[in-house]
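Posting here for the record, re: zinc ion.
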Amino acid sequence: MNSAVDTISVARSALAEARSAVVLTGAGVSVESGVPTFRGAGGLWKTFRAEELATPFAFERDPKLVWEWYDWRRQRIAQAKPNPGHHALVELERRISEFLLVTQNVDGLHADAGSREIVELHGSIWRTQCVGCLEVRNNREVPMKSMPPRCRCGALLRPDVVWFGEGLPPGALNRATRASQKCDVMLIVGTSSVVYPAASLGPAAVHGGAQVFEINTEPSDLSLYYTLLQGKAGEVLPALL
Ligand code: BJW
Ligand code: ZN
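Prediction output follows.
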């Protein structure tokens, strides 16, 4: 018997019987849409790692450099369309009465696909926040005309995302944590599970008694706590329906 197919049928049955489910996604779910991941092959921009650019210190030191990275990513994401993995999660939401999609991604592709109950843990690349007056605005300008961009009040604008050392939006983290603690099934899709507190949601679900399945092309840091369905999100997620 093919064990990968077997675990897929176990996951499919668990989802069919679930009253409540949480799906946690990371950069891997958008790879098949052409959006690069942060870590591993293709995870570097120039010679920088995410840990060097996604920080308030990097922005303070060199806002233009940090904006060049975001502008490059915004251009890639602007051309991206949701893939079969994103679409399968829309259908899953339609089938399960209590459903929450928790994403670490800032690309907005889950909403583009039609998912409705979404918690964005790390913000959105399509909003800016003024570091002076703190105003948050939608911003779809691609490429950015002035680098780094400035607010009407004259202060610098930053991407409205969560950088290392910054707190997650408290409402978002609370909602994600509560749902994870009480769900019947959790799917963890396309994340290396190295960034906290997002990575703690899987263990919270295990602790609450949920069946937790991980969908990833490679084992992650926390795979031994979950049932791994190894493969591409765009192929495995549709197979779960
Ligand atoms: C596929 C695939 C396919 C490929 N199909 N799969 C506890 C322990 C240790 C450290 C900490 C801790 N608690 C807090 C920390 C500090 C820190 C942290 O976690 N550091 C670790 C790196 C060590 N966390 C924070 O600072 C957080 N804030 C916080 O905790 O505040 C309170 C506090 C402050 C100060 C001190 C202590 C506490 C904030 C974290 C913010 C993360 N921000 C970023 C940038 C967001 C904006 C942007 O996009 O630019 O979020 S970093 C980056 O990593 C981004 C991502 O959302 C995040 C996670 O990455 P993800 O999604 O997992 O992507 P990859 O690339 O890592 O993995 C892709 C995966 O896909 C791989 O596994 C592939 O195999 C797979 N894959 N193709 C399926 N087709
Ligand atoms: Zn301002």
